[in-house]
Specification:
Elements lengths: L6 E5 L2 E18 L2 E15 L12 E13 L5 E3 L5 E3 L5 E3 L10 E3 L4 E10 L6
Antiparallel strand pairs: 1-2, 2-3, 3-4, 4-9, 5-8, 6-7
């Protein structure tokens, strides 16, 4: 595909080519008292501005996959749940860890009967492969 076929955005972090934007997934899993949903995914290629390369292991370009997630604790008890520490395996067999630095805060302690919707939990190829 040609670059002009993709949405391009530019800000202080760099220049992004967005390949897939807010594709609805509708994935829902129940894990004990937790209902975990991944409702959207976005993929992009980021040409990292020189001032921000330290956040990406000094790489000039990275691929980022971001997920919009919803976590709900259905019990009365406090539950610890950390989807921002997940691993992703791609269709090429590459395994990458969630990127806590560029992800919104989605993990932690969930008090009884709470629901948390987080803009994006991101994974990038800046992470060391596991």
């Amino acid at each position: 595909m040609k670059e002009e076929e993709f949405e391009v955005q530019e800000d202080e972090v760099g220049r992004s080519q967005i390949y897939m934007k807010n594709r609805n997934l509708g994935i829902e899993e129940t894990i004990g008292p937790i209902i975990f949903q991944i409702d959207k995914v976005q993929t992009l290629r980021l040409e990292v501005a020189s001032d921000y390369r330290f956040m990406f292991d000094d790489q000039k370009e990275v691929t980022i996959v971001s997920f919009n997630v919803i976590v709900e604790n259905t019990s009365d008890e406090t539950v610890s749940f950390h989807p921002n520490q997940a691993r992703l395996v791609t269709n090429t067999g590459e395994q990458v860890n969630a990127d806590i630095v560029i992800s919104e805060d989605v993990g932690g302690e969930f008090l009884g009967k709470v629901k948390k919707k987080v803009g994006y939990c991101s994974m990038s190829n800046r992470c060391r492969k596991s």
